[in-house]
Write a structure and sequence with these properties.
14% strand; 7-stranded mixed beta sheet; 292 residues; single chain; alpha/beta; 44% helix; TIM Barrel; globular; 7 strands
C-alpha cells in the first residue's frame, strides 16, 4: 500500500472538490491520500468521512507556509497526523490573512494592466479560503488575455526573473516557528518539494530546526534527485515521503493522483513514527532515572 501524500482541493489552489478528489483516487486505485491544502485544515474531517465511504484512507495534513529569515525564500512545510489540529488554527489564520493582503495587491496590479475585473478574479477563487495566482490566471484566460495557466502571461506576472512581475510576498512566520507549531500540535513536520530550493544545502539548516522528514518523490525531482534525497533522508534518519502535489486543472503539467507516491515501507514508517518516538522517549527517561 503506497500513498499520494500531497493533494490540494478547491479549499486552497486546487480545482477539484474533496468528493471529486477522493473519487479520482479510487478510480486510480490509490488507497491512501493526504489532503494538504495550503494553510487550511477545514477539509480534513470531511475528507476522512468521504474517504471511509469509498474505502480510501485519508491521512490528515496541511501544507503550511513559512519564510527563511536569512534568504527571504518562501518555504512550505507539510504537517501530517497532528493530534491537536486546533493548535495550528492560529498559524493558519495568520498565514491566510498575510496571503490575502498580498493577493489584494497582486489583484489590483493585474486589473491595472489587463482588462479583467477584481470581481471576476474573486469569482474564479470561489470556494477557496484565499485568492491564488492560479485564480488570477484563470480570470485572465476567461477574458481571453492568456491562452494557458503557465504560459507567457504567467511568466510575465509571476516569474521572479521578470522585470514586470507583480509578485508580493506574504509576511509568513519563520521556518523554525512553523516547525515548532507543528510539534506543539503533535504533528510530523516534512519539508515540501526540497528539489525546488534555490540552495538544497538549506535542508541541513531546517533539519537542525527539528524537521522530521523531507518530500523525496515529487514532480519537481527527477529520478537522480529523488535518489539523492532518499539517501540524504536515510543518512540523517529522516522520514521520506512522496506525492503528486495534485492541483487538478491547475497542475503545471499533465499528471494525476498516484503519479508520485510514498512507497509502502516509507508510508508505514510515517504512520508508525510517533509511536516510535514515544518508545524512544520512554526509554531515554528510564535510562535517566537509572543513572539518578
Amino acid at each position: 500500500m503506497s500513498g499520494d501524500l500531497h493533494c490540494h482541493t478547491r479549499l486552497s489552489n486546487g480545482s477539484m472538490g474533496i468528493e471529486e478528489l477522493i473519487s479520482l483516487a479510487k478510480s486510480r486505485g490509490v488507497e491512501t491520500i493526504a489532503v494538504t491544502d495550503h494553510d487550511c485544515l477545514a477539509g480534513t474531517i470531511r475528507a476522512k468521512i468521504i474517504g471511509e465511504r469509498n474505502g480510501i484512507k485519508i491521512i490528515p495534513g496541511v501544507e503550511l507556509s513559512s519564510v527563511d529569515g536569512d534568504t527571504g525564500e518562501i518555504i512550505h512545510i507539510l504537517c501530517y497526523l497532528p493530534e491537536f489540529p486546533d493548535r495550528l488554527e492560529g498559524l493558519c489564520h495568520q498565514n491566510t490573512v498575510a496571503r490575502k493582503r498580498a493577493s489584494q495587491y497582486m489583484m489590483l496590479k493585474t486589473a491595472q494592466r489587463y482588462p479583467v475585473t477584481a470581481e471576476l478574479m474573486k469569482r474564479c477563487a470561489s470556494g477557496s479560503t484565499n485568492l491564488y495566482k492560479q485564480h488570477i490566471m484563470h480570470a485572465l484566460m476567461e477574458c481571453g488575455v492568456a491562452d494557458s495557466f503557465y504560459g507567457d502571461v504567467y511568466n510575465e506576472l509571476f516569474s521572479p526573473e521578470s522585470a514586470n512581475n507583480i509578485i508580493v510576498k506574504p509576511a509568513f512566520q519563520n521556518v523554525s516557528d512553523v516547525i515548532d507549531a507543528i510539534h506543539s500540535a503533535n504533528g510530523i513536520a516534512v519539508l515540501a518539494h526540497p528539489a525546488m530550493l534555490k540552495d538544497i544545502e538549506l535542508i541541513n539548516k531546517y533539519v537542525d530546526m527539528g524537521l522530521d522528514g523531507i518530500e523525496v518523490w515529487h514532480p519537481s525531482a527527477d529520478e537522480k534527485t529523488s535518489a539523492e534525497l532518499f539517501q540524504y533522508a536515510k543518512k540523517k534518519g529522516l522520514l521520506a515521503t512522496g506525492g503528486s502535489a495534485f492541483h487538478g486543472l491547475y497542475n503545471k503539467r499533465a499528471l494525476t493522483i498516484g503519479d508520485y507516491v510514498t512507497p509502502k515501507t516509507q508510508l508505514q514508517e510515517l504512520l508508525g513514527f510517533k509511536a516510535k518516538q514515544k518508545r524512544l522517549m520512554k526509554k531515554l527517561a528510564a535510562e535517566a532515572e537509572e543513572q539518578n
